[in-house]
Amino acid sequence: MINKSSPIPIYHQLEERIKTEIEEGSLKSGDLLPSEREYAETFKISRMTVRQAISNLVSNGYVYRKKGTGTFVSQKKFEQILPGLTSFTEDMKRRGMVPSNELVEFSILPAPEEVAHALDIKNSESVYKIERIRLADNFPMALETTFVSKHRIEGITEEIAHTSLYEYFESTLNLNIDHATQLIESSIINSEEKKLLHMKTGDPVLLIQRTTYLDDGTPLEFVKSVYRADRYRFMIDMKR
Amino acid sequence: MINKSSPIPIYHQLEERIKTEIEEGSLKSGDLLPSEREYAETFKISRMTVRQAISNLVSNGYVYRKKGTGTFVSQKKFEQILPGLTSFTEDMKRRGMVPSNELVEFSILPAPEEVAHALDIKNSESVYKIERIRLADNFPMALETTFVSKHRIEGITEEIAHTSLYEYFESTLNLNIDHATQLIESSIINSEEKKLLHMKTGDPVLLIQRTTYLDDGTPLEFVKSVYRADRYRFMIDMKR
DNA sequence: GAGTGGTCTAGACCACCCC
DNA sequence: GGGTGGTCTAGACCACTCC
Questions:
Q1: Can you list the domains of chain B with their CATH numbers?
Q2: Is nucleic acid strand C under 7 Å from B66's C-beta?
Q3: What is the per-residue pLDDT for A147?
């Protein structure tokens, strides 16, 4: 159950164990968990280690603590758990669709004002511009334009633009994407985008501007997206 | 600097101290913080207590840790920090506007299907229905319909509906609002809402459906909102 | 009063990074 | 090799809740 000589931290083993019990139903919504001291004695580990495991479960919304009373399983429905920041590719896969891209433009140019500001670089600096139609099950869902500082990130190719940029950033470059700010607004499709997305005048679209940051706070990419409102709804979970 | 006999936890005092140093500029973006052992010795406290303070700062995005190297101040621009889940009232105040409400409907009725599902109650159960035009600087921004289980929450009055429901939940009832899921989509104004928001046919709107939860996972309220797209853009910050 | 989570201590060993 | 954060221990006292 808990392997003390494993390279996997004990708190993480306990965390996964409890998580499994919740997901498999042996711990149900509203149930009282064993106390921290009980866990500590059962597994012959320190109470502080137990606390670290439970604190992580609290952060992830699996359980909540009540002072002087105990720790309980949350009511949350885990089948509809919402992930945090996701890429288009991940998003569509999660919705059970097959994502693909059509490259509209791949170029390197001096950063436009708005882009330079978002990426916190000078106007003269070179950026990649990657414009793609993003499809799900071969149906156009969005038009997405990504800007990345060429000085910060090297080696983006058309090849990579055809798959997932996030995967390239994280798996190949080993960058730690930490968070993103997004500006979401409702609008009407404009004439340029109309054809690319197979829409007609007056159709509503969801405009999303995203700036993605690494854990040290450096902006990684600036993305402007136009989503077909009839095909795409944005879902988020926010902490108070 | 650090008062050990204060009722305020030591980790929280240290946390606030470091936060102040960052905000006032004595610790700048990219700066290396004193090591955990250094803090511990300086303030004659345990390293675990220091770690608790720094862990909270990491969660809030103020600093980040690099294994084997140290802890650094993030690049984040704190003047534009984005808060988490906010109410309309808080949101507008933060944007420098004066929020107000116009009550359109205040009633108690059996929960419609969609509402019952969101609040996890039976169809027959009574719910408050509070429909309000939400104004900023006396200009209509949104039409908002809130549903709250009458069985769970008692004592909502028209009086309260004229101010802030969140304030009532948190300050008066001492409820802990934990998080909310939101479904955001782009649409075109419909004929019923057109007049109330002073809009015309074909104008784009932002539709937001929100379910707010307490820390034990109980749904507190279900809200459907229609925002004027020309006046309102939604801004969020998401963790990866 | 007994049990719970919240805070705190004074150590320890590890893997990792940089010199 | 020396310093850093990551993990872990075996205690302790507190405030709080419930009986």
A1: 10-78 (1.10.10.10), 88-228 (3.40.1410.10)
A2: yes
A3: 97
